[in-house]
Amino acid sequence: MLDTLSSEDARNLLGDRVQFKLSAAKQHLKNLQNLDKDGKGINSSFQSRVYSEMEIECLLLQLVGSVDALLFRINDKLGLGLDEKSIYSNENTVKTISNKLNTLGKGKLLTELQDAIKSEEQNGVKKRGWLWTLRDLRNRGTHRQLINIQVSVSPSVRRAIYLMTDPPTDLEVLPYLESSINRTKNLIEDIIKNEPLLKI
Question: Which string of DSSP letters, residue by residue, matches the chain?
Answer without folding.
Answer: -GGG--HHHHHHHHT-HHHHHHHHHHHHHHHHHHHHHTT--TTS-HHHHHHHHHHHHHHHHHHHHHHHHHHHHHHHHTT----GGG-SSSHHHHHHHHHHHHHTT-TTTTHHHHHHH-EEEETTEEEE-HHHHHHHHHHIIIIISPPPEEEEEETTEEEEEEE--SS--SS-HHHHHHHHHHHHHHHHHHHHHT-GGG--
